[in-house]
TrEMBL record:
InterPro entries: UCP006257, YqcC-like_dom, YqcC-like_sf. This is Uncharacterized conserved protein YqcC, DUF446 family. It comes from the Bacteria. GO terms for biological process: single-species biofilm formation. Residues 8-104 form the YqcC-like domain. Pfam families: DUF446.
C-alpha cells in the first residue's frame, strides 16, 4: 500500500464534504452516456462538480480499495480555478481541498 493512501482518503472525504456544503452534490447519477465521455473532465457532458462526484471520487475510491497505483500527476486545482473563477469565496474550501490532493499526488511518498 502506498504510504499516501490514508492522507489521500482523508482528502477525498474533504472534497466530498465541500461539494455537499456548497450544494454541488447530486443524489442521482447522470446517465450512462454522460458518464462515458472521453473528454478531459467530461467537459462535454458533465458540470465540473458532477465530474468530481461521479468520475473522480469514484475512480480514486476504486484505486484506494484495490491498492492500485496512484496517478503520476494531478491538475485538478487548475481546472477548478477556471471553473470557479467567478465564485472565488464560494469555492475556496473545495479549491483548498483539491490543492492538497494535487500536492499529495505529486509528493511521491
Amino acid at each position: 500500500m502506498d504510504v499516501r493512501f490514508p492522507a489521500i482518503a482523508e482528502q477525498l472525504l474533504l472534497i466530498e464534504r465541500e461539494l455537499r456544503l456548497q450544494g454541488w452534490w447530486d443524489e442521482e447519477s447522470p446517465g450512462v452516456e454522460a458518464l462515458s465521455s472521453v473528454e478531459p473532465f467530461s467537459v462535454d457532458t458533465l458540470d465540473f462538480h458532477q465530474w468530481l462526484q461521479w468520475i473522480f471520487l469514484a475512480r480514486m475510491k476504486q484505486i484506494l480499495e484495490q491498492d492500485l497505483p496512484l496517478p503520476n500527476a494531478s491538475g485538478i486545482l487548475e481546472m477548478a480555478e477556471m471553473v470557479y473563477a467567478d465564485r472565488p469565496k464560494e469555492s475556496q474550501g473545495l479549491r483548498t481541498a483539491l490543492k492538497k490532493f494535487d500536492q499529495l499526488i505529486v509528493d511521491a511518498g
